[in-house]
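Let us practice reading a record.
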Amino acid sequence: MRFTSSFGIISGVRSDRPLGNNEIARVAPSIFATSAHESRSERYAYIPTIDVLNALRNEGFQPFMACQTRTRSEEKRDHTKHMIRLRHADQINGREANEIILLNSHDGSSSYQMIAGMFRFVCSNGMVCGNAFGEVRVQHKGNVIDNVIEGAHEILVSLDKASELREGMEAITLSAREQEAFAKAALALKYDPSDSTPAPITEEQILMPRRYEDKKDDLWTTLARVQENLIKGGILARTRKGRTTRTRAVTGIDQNVKLNRALWVLAEQMKALKA
């Protein structure tokens, strides 16, 4: 089990086994909020995220990761945006596990949102699948729990397509020049290409494997290397003033999901070009 604490995410936990409520509550108390934030109107249908999670557990979904966003307002700490990554028993294989990403808040910053994801065991990468796999949003009104369960099963069906796409990426070999082009496009997703200042790191750096298993030239492994290096950070870099530093991890929930999803879409586009 791994616990994390950083600026964008106040804390998070990921485990190789289903998380219990005590483990989740320790790092993401907003999942257990007993009421909506006072700023919500009477029309707001308050359903604790833990009630939704328990209903999903009854459907065979189990949480393997949980976190919540840091807030500067102490009164919003128990209502702020949170994320749970869940797996279904039949969506786990030896190398990857398909996941459903559940997002929510009780301060008005988010509805219930579900998107498709994938976890790569060798590097502990939590990926987010592209737009083609759908996204389900459930407003805080009506029968929230039943609507979330229905949405989770919709995403579950789309995960078979995600596995097929992953296999297709594994079958595509990229030349060194193609990998560099992919990395260049990936850098533009994180660092504003319109900025006159060059990115603080290079294509070669984000293509660098962190382990032996990632020394492959297929599209899937290239995506995994680039994603890990951009998301986890820690790469030696140069500031605008020429000073040596290290890149920061992408820790904010929204920023993490946005960049992760964009990288997946980029890989899909590369796959289409190679078809």
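A brief commentary: Helices lie at 21-27, 49-58, 144-170, 176-190, 203-206, 219-232, 253-274.
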